[in-house]
Design goal:
The chain is α+β, with helices and mostly antiparallel strands. Strands 4-3-2-1-5-6-7-8 form an eight-stranded antiparallel β-sheet. A hairpin with a 5-residue loop joins strand 7 and strand 8. Helix 1 packs across helix 4, helix 2 packs antiparallel against helix 4 and helix 7 crosses helix 8. It starts with 6 loop residues before the first helix and ends in a 10-residue tail after the last helix.
Amino acid sequence: MNTAPEPGTVKRALSAHAAIGLLAGALLYLVSLTGTLSVFYAELQRLEQPDAPEMTAIDPDRVQSAVAAMIALERGKPTTTHLFVHLPVDDLPRTTITTDTQAYHVNADGTLAMPEEIAWSDFLIKLHYTLNLPSLVGITIVGALGVMMLALALSGVVAHPRIFRDAFRLRARNGNGVGLADWHNRLSVWTLPFSLAIALTGALIGMATVTAWTIAAIDYDGDVEAVYGPIFGEEGKPDATPAALPDVATALRYMASHHPDVTVTYAILHDPLTAGQHVQIVGSHDRRLIFGEYYGFDAAGRFLHASGLADGELGQQAAASTYKLHFGTYGDLPVKLAYLVFGLALTVISATGVYIWLGKRERRGIRQPRIRAAWNGVVYGMPLVLAMTLLLRMGFGNDLPFAAIFWIGSVVTIAAWVAWETRIALPSRTEAPI
């Protein structure tokens, strides 16, 4: 009995295999591109809403007044479980209060200025983090892409034993795909430490989320916060009994007097206006990779404890160090510009890898104009559509559905690219299976 699959089945299987690989390559390219742009998240917010009030510092009593005003504005809405006060820092010198339902910029005198309108910047971050998918699904895929990037970087070094010896040999104008391969290999070598750091931290951020959800489902009845508690600090026991507004100003004054070398970035109110409420102050430490330390206070502003991200277990410090290393926020503008250069190089590496694969097949006589056209649509079309969403934001406001516009626009652009390029392609060879 002949159990060999039919030729048509083999052809369809090969096509599906290559299509999955190309889809993964397209997502890897998109994550590299959006990650490069996300380094400038603070600057993009200022570009998107340039008229928001800015200040280098704000008095603690004015913060208290702004929190009270925001809580008053929340009346009639579902009770917020967390209230975040973003305090002025060098790259984003604005005070902004965010609840579960809304966000407002704050004037220096503690009055509410205007609603925060940074929908495009938030869309970009979500596109990078989750591909605009439901959070757990999206971050799982992006984490897997980080693992893939790490594997590609390491396997590329192993597969090219002369890659370091040829690090400065660039045949940029050589035909037959050699020039393109040289650009790909040279950029891969020159940016290898950056690529490894980005891939590893991206994989850790994504896979840690999946792991936390899994542990929570098995051992903590789905309570993810209980899993993160030993690392980032416990939430505390909820008590819905009504209570007065917590004293944020006293907590901020404590930080100024006891930790003057710490840059306060956020004040977080947990379960405000309840007996179970407490305050966390997030403080950034200079010359450290940790995103910050959590300082806990009770409702009266009395200091309770620090979480240990700055000086606790090595695992805690390592977990808190992945974010700054991944997004390049541990330095000033020169560091961000370096991330821009290296990130663009990583994006080019992602794009040229597929072009090299297609070129090798074409030199063997396997010509695939649809696949090449689709990849052209990805490489050139997606950045164009992303730029179009920004232009629409600046021209038509904050309320557009940017995620839908981007994904529908990308599909239409890629399809149009395929239709145009295959229409003008010379039909000199039969297109082979993928």
